Amino acid sequence: MKKLKRSARLVEMTQYLLSRPHTVIPLTTFAERYGAAKSSISEDLAIIKEVFEEGGSGELHTLAGAAGGVKWIPKVSRELALAFAERLSTQLAQPDRILPGEYLYMSDLLGQPALMNEAGKIFATAFGNMDIDVVMTVETKGIPLAYATGAQLNLPVVLVRRDHQATEGSAVSINYVSGSHKSLHTMSLSRRAMREHSRVLIVDDFMKAGGTVQGMIDLLAEFNATVAGVGVLVESGSVDSEERLLTDYISLAKLTAVDAKSRHISVKPGNYFDL
Amino acid sequence: MKKLKRSARLVEMTQYLLSRPHTVIPLTTFAERYGAAKSSISEDLAIIKEVFEEGGSGELHTLAGAAGGVKWIPKVSRELALAFAERLSTQLAQPDRILPGEYLYMSDLLGQPALMNEAGKIFATAFGNMDIDVVMTVETKGIPLAYATGAQLNLPVVLVRRDHQATEGSAVSINYVSGSHKSLHTMSLSRRAMREHSRVLIVDDFMKAGGTVQGMIDLLAEFNATVAGVGVLVESGSVDSEERLLTDYISLAKLTAVDAKSRHISVKPGNYFDL
Fold this sequence. Notes:
2 copies of one chain form a homodimer. Chain A is an alpha/beta fold. Chain A contains 8 helices and 13 strands. Chains A, B: It comes from Paenibacillus xylanivorans.
């Protein structure tokens, strides 16, 4: 690459860093890329770090020593995350979302890539300091959220299927009881999909009693894998405490009431904001 | 926001633009955001434009007049797209991907968010000049690709289900014949998911004879919607031309042979590179 002026280099480096979250980039990579001295690169990075961190979009970690470099850690400030949860809650409370069986129509929201990416960035903030190998979800509606989270954390996504698919090779299947209906279902994961002893972040769009998430946790045991965390976009608060299978999770929004008769829905920010 | 030096402003503006593809941003937004004169903002944008366009990561369009502003159009150069397709082809040709029935295991590749985002950016390059309202896919494996494409084009994603789900409300169902097995399947789309007369970009991970994509096209007719384009990550070239249901699509990789006996797989870059 030809030598760039500082102004152009700042634009290029910003673009380079933003597209590589949670990745260590040695200073020498930049120095060679731009034909610049490491001292100039360090000055550039100080400017970028200040803008990123003051703007609340994340942290630029500097790693000293032989493996010296920088790592971009995208984060969402508590203030912006809460604003997101409040907007989401308002949208979820629209009365025309109520479906027969008191289900809530959410596909229009789940279908917005920018909204999913924002939620994924909040999960990446919540779980970014943990030792995680993969993000896991079960088909179907949690998939965009799992990929958004995986992209921000620079982690692969493992997809649990409802049925055993010919395109997955040999798989491990388990039965689980879904809390909403207390009915028995099957989920399966390809043997090839995950290494043994992986540390797994489970992500889903919606959780009621937690049966589906508990199913994924049971499936992890078959791979000698462990849960590093559980994040759901929306939880239903209308569950008796003795019915709830899971207590250790974070949610971004909490559905506290759905009344089909009065067409009233109550939603508030989730337990992520309780602390 | 406090006044920023030019260097800091360039970093901030770069970050702002990159997170808002295919979105018109008026110059006044930047001028107010940074308390700077429009002439200074224009100079900044000229620097950013040059870096983006020379680096081959996209185009920064300038819109003159009262609605004056800029629009960031992410693009992948033909050279980088071909390099991507060649890497993908090499990975797909690994012999241990062959599954019973001559299916190919692809979930490890589809599980990499960064790889999906790169493919999505290539689709956004291919279809970015077209008039499109939504990106559509059918569950399950094409979902990350559809979201990656939707994110780059700033478009919502519409998800066709294999079964009618309680969480989707009233839906339109159709039957379709899947080319691989000539067997009859059902797919359905929520009535609420898409406006009538939408222009739709169909995205999927794999296409053989095209039965599944043809199913989605048939479903569009029920919504008085039209196909704006079809993009698949991998197509199977081992289809007789009279069996192929669809001819107007782009693919990024083409599977030309899978031989379970010799454990040989041939893959080459897709028809996107034929021009």
